[in-house]
Design goal:
single chain, 292 residues, alpha/beta, TIM Barrel, 10-stranded mixed sheet, binds ligand PBG
């Protein structure tokens, strides 16, 4: 599956310095990327919005005219059901402080207040036509809360992909440029400790109990052991996300003549598959699918 960025107000695609070869799309170039994805036989596309304005509660996220929801409508209009259309369901692209949730009066992420924001986003994304919602915010209880909100309006057809295992990782670095987000503080109160495997398995179990249809492990390459254990422990499809820093690392080394780019790309993707991923999100998806 191909992750893509859509920038509000862009007339042309905008290249990203920290991810050479990846762009922030305009609405038109996004449609073209989706058509290409269908042509080469990709399974799906994951959309991230890059809004022009941000505020404390991330109000652009559940606005039907917000950039992410506009992009979802464009995508469904373009590809119908030929490609699985997935939406990132998280607030960090839309908040001015860059956190994945809303803050309390002491400046800490307020888990339960954030759940209501996620429910509202979920309804907006379902209305905009998303087949799958990618719950990436790492709030406790998010999967169950969103599932109940969708059930209440009889949208049990919408699939939930829970980012059950998401580590507080340096490998998300280039993503910040991609969505133009600056983070105040860090995410260690809601993302996971890289040294902890047991918590990953517990998070997966909770998400499946809460109604997740698929679970994700993220990042990929530094967490192959986690991916492998998760894949063996659940009865739902398991996805792996090869994140921005993994992409940048290979591209930078290849550009410096240090490694064979094409072989390195295939090798990293193969390792995710070998470790047990049934779904892989990768910024190289279109290129690789074409060459295969
Ligand atoms: C949250 C989200 C992030 C990524 C995907 N969804 C950022 C974060 O949690 O810091 C990172 C993806 C990547 O690095 O490629 N909206």
């Amino acid at each position: 599956m191909l992750p893509v960025f859509l920038r509000e107000g862009a007339d042309e695609p905008v290249p990203l310095q920290s991810m050479p070869g990846v762009v922030q799309h305009s609405r038109e170039s996004l449609r073209q990327a989706a058509r290409e994805a269908v042509e080469v036989g990709l399974g799906g596309i994951m959309l991230f919005g890059v809004p022009r304005h941000r505020d404390a509660t991330g109000s652009g996220a559940d606005d039907p005219d917000g950039i992410l929801n506009v992009g979802l409508r464009d995508l469904r209009d373009e590809v119908g059901d030929d490609l699985v259309v997935m939406a990132d369901l998280c607030l960090d692209e839309f908040t001015d402080h860059g956190h994945c949730g809303v803050l309390d009066d002491r400046g800490r992420v307020d888990n339960d207040a954030t759940l209501d924001r996620y429910a509202s986003m979920a309804l907006a994304q379902a209305d905009a036509g998303a087949h799958v919602l990618g719950l990436s915010g790492m709030m406790d209880g998010q999967t169950g809360h969103v599932r109940r909100a969708l059930d209440a309006v009889r949208r049990d057809d919408v699939v939930l992909l829970a980012y059950a295992v998401k580590y507080a990782s340096a490998f998300f670095g280039p993503f910040r440029e991609a969505v133009e987000s600056t983070l105040e503080g860090d995410r260690t109160t809601y993302q996971q400790d890289p040294g902890n495997l047991v918590e990953a398995l517990r998070e997966v179990r909770l998400d499946v109990e809460e109604g997740a249809d698929m679970v994700m492990v993220k990042p990929g390459l530094p967490y192959l052991d986690v991916l492998s254990q998760v894949a063996r422990s659940v009865q739902v499809p398991v996805a792996a996300y090869q994140v921005s820093g993994e992409y940048a690392m290979v591209e930078a080394a290849a550009a410096a003549g240090m490694i064979d780019r094409d072989r390195a790309i295939l090798e990293t993707l193969t390792s995710l598959r070998r470790a047990g991923a049934q779904v892989v999100l990768a910024y190289w998806a279109t290129e690789v699918a074409r060459s295969l």
